[in-house]
Amino acid sequence: MEKQLGNNRTARHRIAFALVAVMFLVADWVSKRVFQDWLDSTGPIEVVAGLRFILVHNHGAAFGFLASAGGWQRGLFISVAGAVMIYLAWRLWAARAEEAVVNMGFAMILGGAAGNLIDRVQHGYVIDFIDIHFKAWHWPAFNVADSAITIGAAVVILDSLGLFRRKLDRKNELT
C-alpha cells in the first residue's frame, strides 16, 4: 500500500513538472507570435522608461554569443538544446518527490529550452522582444523562454546550495 502511494505521488509530480514545462513553452510561443506580429507593424514600443519591446532575431546563443559565426552555430545550438532537453526530461521522469524544488527549476529550463529550440529549428534564429535599458546601456534583448531558463537555473543553483532544502527539512522536523 505504501509503495502504491509513493508511485501515485511520483506520477503526480511527473505530471506537474510536465505541465510547468508545457506552460512555459506555450507562454513563450504565444508571446513570440503576438509580439512579432505587433512589432512588425508598429516598430519598437517604449513601455516605461527603461523597458521597451523591440523585435530582435538572435542568431546566436545567450547574449548573442556566436551570432556572427557564419551559420554553422545553428546546428550546434540545436544539438546542445536537444541534448539538454533529453537529459532534463529523463531527470524529471526519474525525479523523487523530495526533489520538488530543484525539479521545478529543471521543468522551467526544459520549457524555455523547448521554446527557443522551436524558433531555431523553424526560423534559424530565436525571436527576442524584451529590451531593458538605462540611457545608452542595454541588456541584451530576451524573451519568455530566456526568463524561464534564467529563473529555473537560479532555482537549481539555490537549491543545490541548500537554500530550499533547509526550509523543507525544518518544516519536516516540525511535523
List the helices and strands and how they pair.
Elements: H1 2-42, E1 45-48, E2 51-58, H2 73-93, H3 100-123, E3 126-134, E4 137-138, H4 144-160, H5 163-174
What features would you describe in this structure?
The chain is of the alpha+beta class and 175 residues long. The chain is built from five helices and four strands; from the N terminus they run αββααββαα. Helices cover 66% and strands 13% of the residues. The longest helix has 41 residues. Strands 1-2-3-4 form a four-stranded antiparallel β-sheet. It has one domain.
Order of helices and strands: HEEHHEEHH
Fraction of residues in H or I helices: 55-70%
Q: How many distinct folded domains? A: 1
- Structural category is alpha+beta
Q: Going across the major beta sheet, what is the strand order?
A: 1-2-3-4
Report the sheet with the most strands, covering strand number, pairing sense and barrel closure.
Answer: 4 strands, antiparallel
SS field, number of helical segments: 5
Shape: globular
Low-confidence parts? none
Strand content: 5-15%
Mean pLDDT value = 84
Number of strands: 4
What would you report as the Rg, rounded to the nearest angstrom?
A: 19 Å
Distance between the termini: 22 Å
